[in-house]
Write a structure and sequence with these properties.
Layout lengths: L14 H18 L4 H17 L1 H12 L4 H19 L6 E6 L4 E7 L2 E5 L5 H14 L3 E5 L5 H17 L7 E3 L5 H9 L3 E6 L3 H8 L5 E3 L5 E5 L5 H12 L10 E7 L3 H10 L2 E3 L2 H11 E2 L2 E2 L8 H8 L18 E5 L17 E7 L2 H15 L2 E7 L5 H10 L2 E6 L3 H5 L34 E7 L13 E4 L4 H4 L8 E5 L2 H6 L1 H11 L3 E5 L8 H14 L3 E6 L1 H15 L5 H4 L21 E6 L11 E6 L4 E6 L7 E4 L9 H20 L5 H24 L4 H21 L3 H13 L3 H16 L18 H11 L7 H18 L6 H5 L3 H16 L13 H13 L5 H5 L3 H8 L2
Parallel strand pairs: 3-4, 3-6, 4-5, 6-7, 8-9, 8-15, 9-14, 10-13, 13-14, 15-16, 18-25, 19-20, 19-21, 21-22, 22-25
Antiparallel strand pairs: 1-2, 2-17, 11-12, 23-24
Helix pairs in contact: 2-4, 2-5, 2-6, 3-4, 3-6, 4-5, 5-6, 9-10, 11-12, 19-20, 22-23, 22-24, 22-26, 23-24, 25-26, 25-30, 26-28, 26-31, 27-28, 30-31, 31-33
Amino acid sequence: MVNSTKGTNMQVTNIEELELLVQRVKTAQAKYSNYSQEQVDLIFKKAALAANAERIPLAKLAVAETGMGIVEDKVIKNHFASEFIYNKYKHEKTCGIIEEDHTFGIEKIYEPVGIVAGIVPVTNPTATTIFKALIALKTRNAIIFSPHPKSKKCTVEAAKIILKAAIAAGAPEDIIGWIDEPTVELSKALMQHPEIKLILATGGPGMVRAAYSSGNPSLGVGAGNTPAVIDSSAHIQMAVSSILLSKTFDNGMICASEQSVVVVDDIYEKVKQEFISRGAYFLNDEERQKLGNIILKEGRLNPAIVGQSVDNLAKLAGIELQSDEDTAQAPQIYKVLIGEVETVGDGEPFAYEKLSPILAMYRASNFHEAVDQAENLVEFGGLGHTSVLYTNPANLDDIAYFENRMKTGRVLINTPSSQGAIGDLYNFKLDPSLTLGCGTWGGNTVSDNVTPHHLVNIKTVSQRRQNMLWFRVPPKVYFKYGCLPVALRDLVGKERAFIVTDRPLFDLGIVDKVTQVLDEIGVKHDVFHDVEPDPTLTNVNKGLALLRSYQPDVIIAIGGGSPMDAAKVMWLMYEQPDVEFEGLAMRFMDIRKRVYELPALGQKAIMVAIPTTSGTGSEVTPFAVVTDDRVGVKYPLADYALTPNIAIADPELVLNMPKKLTAYGGIDALTHALEAYVSVMATEFTDGLALQAIRLLFKYLPSAYKNGAKDPKAREKVHYAATIAGMAFANAFLGICHSMAHKLGATFHVPHGLANALMISHVIRYNATDIPFKQAIFPQYKYPNAKDRYAQIADHLRLGGNTADEKVELLIMAIENLKRQIDIPATIKQALGDEDQEFYTKVEEMAEQAFDDQCTGANPRYPLMNDLKELYVLAYQGCRIDAALYHNGDAAMFSEKVGV
């Protein structure tokens, strides 16, 4: 035995001495917190070896002091707490960097929590002290023990042994401390001390509740009331032997030990006989009543029975154990006392946790009833702890049923619960521990076995990294005048094509150009030509019904944005009939991490997109816009699964576009390119596309508008610009101009391109600031640079200007001049007519909806709802406002100036 004491022989018997101890331990832990992993591992090893070497003397001392349990079993507990804990964790890193990934810029660092308060129970004093001291040392923590008054000597002795070995191995002198004369007052003072950073509470319910109410973080354990179910397929001898092995260990004081056995009716008598043959004593009615009278005291477990032998329990209850020749109970030393009972509740003492070699035994008519009874027992007194099932391992359905019903942190199959629950004996993957968490079921913070990893703070060092980006467009994009018939020959081998278009294009004979080629290559075809402008779900479902009945292997969308959108949604619903539109329309912050995961398309049919307008770019994008006519909301849908497989940009199809459609589509494409270039998701892969589209549109859109088919080159370049801009914003996304245009269009039926044209200049002025009030969440730039990006566009267009502000204004002037050349109204008011009252009535709602639009998240300046409202009002009235007001975030000044 060890005779040394902590520090300079200081004793802790009162609050003042406890305070001195805490300060000494704090100093020691501060020093220990800087030890290396090698130093800690040596201390951990030497402490474990010392505790293991004294396992027998400590066991004797515990039994002698407490009068509970069995020396030989306590030797095993001490051995487990030292050797098994050491072997399990000896190679685990618990100091410094324990995980790092240079690619993703992540480090995880273990830091000690500080001083741990170790509450030690009378039922398991020395092994618990060894266990808690070792895991504290392994994690560079200090620990102060508060023993149970009835086991203070053996607890302190165990602590002394470990402290002496730790100091000899290089640990600071006061790294472990203890209370020599424990009282309720001292225990509470320790747990409530501000220097205590974590409480490891093992003990009675009152002590565990005190730990959780101390104000300091606590890892406590709940009460155990383990039921063991034996079903019809169980190996009876193995089940009974396992239960007796567990229940007799240390006279049943392990908190995980079986308290009740629930046996299915058809094997009940066999199980009972097996218990008898292996030394169990079944109580008759009178004996059961007598023993039941001493199990509880004032409604709680009677301390006098805890850890007592069968003989002592019989004497306490006034029972004379008799042999019974009729039941083959031969004279012997009985191992356990079993009371056959039926009910679970306050009136049945055998239903409680008994912490002694006393078992309740219940009969159940079938397996499900047995599980019900086990669930009742857990609910009554053992939530979160442990439950056991004995069954044929092949009964996977029964095992699954049992594990799903049990609200316990440990569900053991064919395993003695005392030894199985503490881990590393019957299953090496279950962490060894003498502190078993019960989760929220049992009022605990953890539900697993407490290990060293519960005694560390994990510091995560995260370096700035940009997540992987992408550039995704259709695998094939065909272009050049007259390319349509050649490109369509890619469909050789397909069987049925379903063509989606609108009535005007069908009547103009545009579809004939496609069907002629399909006939030549032997592909059957059907046509849905009733797509409405701004298609609704009702309209989409009408076409979908025809598509499903035709079962095509290729879908061909011909037209502008509306047929493209309708075809994409039909394609989706054809491929994935169970898709939820609400989920598809759900807004996301990052398309890579969206809540709703859309399955890949193309298993039934591929998608071919043939634009007959120049603007939407839908032929190369993963986007579709559809209106839910039930609620009147236009949803921009986004998922790369919606990207067509083939895009055919044939300028011949757009030669005779109407002037308004040319103007609105051209400005829509320009807005795509402008917003893609300043988007927070813009990259080197999209910038060139956006700039080229902008240049082409400024150069060729006026002539395409004025001269139409007379200038085929202008038509061709504008058509390409729309597709190129589509590729850019398919990968860089858009901004609030589109967000606001979506809501303006849905509310007042303004054509989408026109809506963008009415907003774009105001949005540029709003975005063009180096100091926005709010920024987007994960931009690809290091600091706000939208103003500079707009200036780069002006430079690309050779507009002149010396400063970024001048260049931005010149860009806006160029856009406004372009709009005038193609007869775009200057204001929303001009576009709508006399709609003042209705506009101002709806502007607040439009602003809120625009804020929640999918496009808003990629805008370089993250807007407030009131900002969007003010932009709508500016665009409606046509007021020009200096961007500086936005820069200063002075909403009040702005509102006053425009009168809103």
